[in-house]
């Protein structure tokens, strides 16, 4: 339990340090933001990756979603609460670090349901890798997935967050959404914490988009809108973004190209040194020293090695380097 608490503190300390277009990058045309890579199926998890808390303990084991009657009217709810609210109450809410989900209520049965998308192995494992003995390449435990279960925990969402109706739809639309969630879940397998932009300016270039709980809610809202759901645009909806600010990223290669037998040994060593500072399970003393080194890397050297689509990129960071924002993104219309 203490290791998980330190991991949460590490994330908070890191946070406190602080358009699609074509560009020429390394001799080829690069599309920005870099498209999130989809897969044909979800791989089995490696036994090395262990979750502190069981993923989706109240959901169906096969990930199934109940079928609604066509004539049913389903109310859709916006759900938001501080990250780790179950453990720390509204602590991270003061930093606008929020978790998002969607609630549903059947008018015919009166039953409530919750849908959310989050990390299989907790946030720290999805954001930073492990450096395993006798393994040159950093090892990532960064799968994420959808969780659907019966019930809405009113106390959880209301006490420090939000539980408000935002839309309504038919049972037909709900069943189409359920099919889409399965397809989306089977092909979008990994969690991505960071959103990388050129600057804090509103229209600045976006290099990489995050793929997290908020992204799932936004995708689902858009799908419901396409299916014909009616949204109440008067409800204001804000989402947490963990931002890195960088000049145009430089592509470095995949794991084999960097860490393989014929890889770039010097680059491999630099990447390992960088991620060593962010390793899990550090003692308090190690953590404090690492925070100082991280600050130097970010604010002085302005270096960041970024892992996306199972490939590595170099980010030449720019002021303000790292920032948490709580941006308004309106409901579909």
From TrEMBL:
Keyword Signal: yes
Gene: cln5
TM ranges: none
Signal is among the record's keywords: yes
Organism: Xenopus tropicalis
Domain of life of the source: Eukaryota
Function: Exhibits palmitoyl protein thioesterase (S-depalmitoylation) activity in vitro and most likely plays a role in protein S-depalmitoylation. Catalyzes the synthesis of bis(monoacylglycero)phosphate (BMP) via transacylation of 2 molecules of lysophosphatidylglycerol (LPG). BMP also known as lysobisphosphatidic acid plays a key role in the formation of intraluminal vesicles and in maintaining intracellular cholesterol homeostasis. Can use only LPG as the exclusive lysophospholipid acyl donor for base exchange and displays BMP synthase activity towards various LPGs (LPG 14:0, LPG 16:0, LPG 18:0, LPG 18:1) with a higher preference for longer chain lengths.
Family recorded in the similarity comment: Belongs to the CLN5 family.
Reaction catalysed by this enzyme: 2 1-tetradecanoyl-sn-glycero-3-phospho-(1'-sn-glycerol) = 1-tetradecanoyl-sn-glycero-3-phospho-(3'-tetradecanoyl-1'-sn-glycerol) + sn-glycero-3-phospho-(1'-sn-glycerol); 2 1-acyl-sn-glycero-3-phospho-(1'-sn-glycerol) = 1-acyl-sn-glycero-3-phospho-(3'-acyl-sn-1'-glycerol) + sn-glycero-3-phospho-(1'-sn-glycerol); 2 1-(9Z-octadecenoyl)-sn-glycero-3-phospho-(1'-sn-glycerol) = 1-(9Z-octadecenoyl)-sn-glycero-3-phospho-(3'-(9Z-octadecenoyl)-1'-sn-glycerol) + sn-glycero-3-phospho-(1'-sn-glycerol); 2 1-octadecanoyl-sn-glycero-3-phospho-(1'-sn-glycerol) = 1-octadecanoyl-sn-glycero-3-phospho-(3'-octadecanoyl-1'-sn-glycerol) + sn-glycero-3-phospho-(1'-sn-glycerol)
Protein name stated in the entry: Bis(monoacylglycero)phosphate synthase CLN5
Keyword field: Glycoprotein, Signal
Signal peptide: 1-27
Pfam families given in the database record: CLN5
One Gene Ontology term from the biological process aspect of the record: lysosome organization
PANTHER family attached to this UniProt entry: CEROID-LIPOFUSCINOSIS NEURONAL PROTEIN 5, CEROID-LIPOFUSCINOSIS, NEURONAL 5
A single MF term (Gene Ontology): palmitoyl-(protein) hydrolase activity
A GO cellular component annotation in the UniProt record: lysosomal membrane
């Amino acid at each position: 339990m203490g290791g998980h608490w330190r991991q949460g503190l590490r994330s908070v300390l890191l946070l406190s340090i602080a358009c699609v277009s074509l560009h020429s990058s390394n001799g080829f045309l690069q599309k920005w933001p870099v498209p999130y890579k989809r897969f044909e199926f979800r791989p089995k998890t490696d036994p090395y990756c262990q979750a502190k808390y069981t993923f989706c303990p109240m959901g169906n084991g096969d990930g199934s979603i109940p079928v609604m009657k066509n004539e049913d009217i389903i109310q859709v709810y916006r759900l938001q609460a501080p990250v780790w609210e179950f453990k720390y109450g509204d602590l991270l809410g003061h930093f606008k670090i929020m978790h998002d989900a969607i609630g549903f209520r059947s008018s015919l049965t009166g039953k409530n349901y919750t849908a959310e998308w989050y990390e299989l192995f907790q946030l720290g494992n999805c954001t930073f890798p492990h450096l395993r003995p006798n393994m040159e390449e950093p090892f990532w435990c960064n799968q994420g997935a959808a969780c659907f279960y019966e019930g809405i925990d009113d106390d959880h969402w209301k006490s420090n967050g939000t539980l408000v109706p935002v839309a309504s739809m038919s049972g037909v639309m709900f069943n189409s959404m359920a099919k889409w969630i399965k397809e989306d879940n089977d092909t979008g397998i990994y969690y991505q914490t960071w959103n990388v932009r050129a600057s804090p300016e509103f229209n600045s270039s976006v290099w990489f988009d995050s793929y997290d709980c908020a992204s799932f809610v936004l995708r689902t809202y858009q799908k419901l809108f396409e299916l014909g759901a009616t949204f109440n645009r008067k409800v204001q909806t804000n989402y947490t973004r963990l931002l890195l600010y960088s000049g145009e990223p430089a592509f470095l290669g995949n794991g084999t190209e960097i860490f393989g037998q014929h890889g770039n040994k010097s680059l491999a060593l630099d990447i390992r040194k960088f991620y060593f500072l962010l390793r899990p399970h550090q003692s308090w003393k190690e953590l404090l020293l690492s925070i100082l080194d991280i600050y130097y890397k970010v604010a002085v050297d302005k270096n960041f090695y970024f892992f996306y689509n199972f490939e590595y990129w170099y980010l030449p960071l720019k002021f303000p380097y790292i920032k948490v924002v709580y941006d308004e993104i309106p409901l579909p219309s």
